[in-house]
Amino acid sequence: MSNIIEFLKSQEAKEKLMSLYNLDEQAVDTQVKRYQKLADAFAEVYPVDNASFFSSSGRIEIIGNHTDHQLGRIVAASIDMDTIAIVTPNADGKIHVKSLEYDEFTIDVNVLAVKEDDSRTVKLIKGILERFVQNGRKIGGFTTFMTTTVLS
């Protein structure tokens, strides 16, 4: 993690975040601090150096609501809120998900049957994983910490 934490202090990191968020030099510091906070929290628990960052923008549906209800036909737009995650693979066959805003949960990739007491989030992830398996994809374990500016 030290390499990621050091990278976030670099001008190159600022430039990448400026491009990703369409920010100027002055405004990018908020995003740099956000990424640093997430990397620091991850490093406290998982001192590994093979982690990667991911970002998924928030969106609004201008016309239609959810592609599954509209046969895939909606008009959506991204917004300037997102979810960022730092992820590292693991060999334990489990997906460990921790958010700075929510409690941690774990999914065993070898047990994808949905249980009645699974949360909606766990059910959604298990469904996606099951579809990957049905399509012949190999799935494995990973650990992720995330944070979001998207409203709940």
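(ticket continues) Second input and output from the same batch:
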Amino acid sequence: MARWLQADAVKLGGSFKGRQFIAEVILWAVRWYLMFPISYRDLELMLADRGVGVDHTTIFRWIQAYAPELEKRIRPHLRTSDGSWRVDETYVKVKGRWTYLYRAVDSRGQTIDFLLSARRDTAAAKRFFRKALGQPHTVNPRTITVDKNPAYPRAVAEMKEDGELWRRSQLRQVKYLNNIVEQDHRRVKRLVRPGLGFGSFHTARRTLAGYEVMAMVRKGQVRRIGGRDMRAQATFVAKLFDFAA
């Protein structure tokens, strides 16, 4: 048992040298939790079935350490998205209160970016657009399709005026064109449901980053990695952390 719990000592960005088997177990657990709607206790039982004795609270710590690290390491390997943005927000419960998860996909359903916010206003919309524009796989949008939220026109107008957004970007408030992102919200909701919400904003932000980036992998957004090729995905993630799967 103690050998498995040594994994808690692995620091963010640290080396797995001398702990290859432990690294494989950690990343297997992290990938499965972030890809499928299971609880920490479910994953504890799955690991126990494979002879790995680890507590669900330890798995939680693995997710908090490695989900944001996965996002950071995977981002540079993503295919470039197209210039048709479909933007919407969905609700996520944090510490018993509803917060707003801003999300955008392109016309093919490929994830552009996401942002968890306590507010749904012009400032939050601008933060989201700035975050999305700063990613290595995004381009300045030709069109931005949104719902009737009045914050979006204000945010776009102000960003154009400040030179942060291409002046020819067209804002469209057409609900049916956003069906693609609204349907994509369901995947996030399905993953969040087993955990019954999040205990803190910090925890939610880190876990959601893992959900979203692994969804990018499953959608085939990583260059030269098939969206349904689980073996190739596992090998790719292992190489990101400098060990062989």
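Agent notes: Residues 88 and 182 are 7 Å apart (CA to CA). Residues 84-198 form a domain with the Nucleotidyltransferase; domain 5 fold (CATH 3.30.420.10). Closing as not reproducible unless the customer responds.
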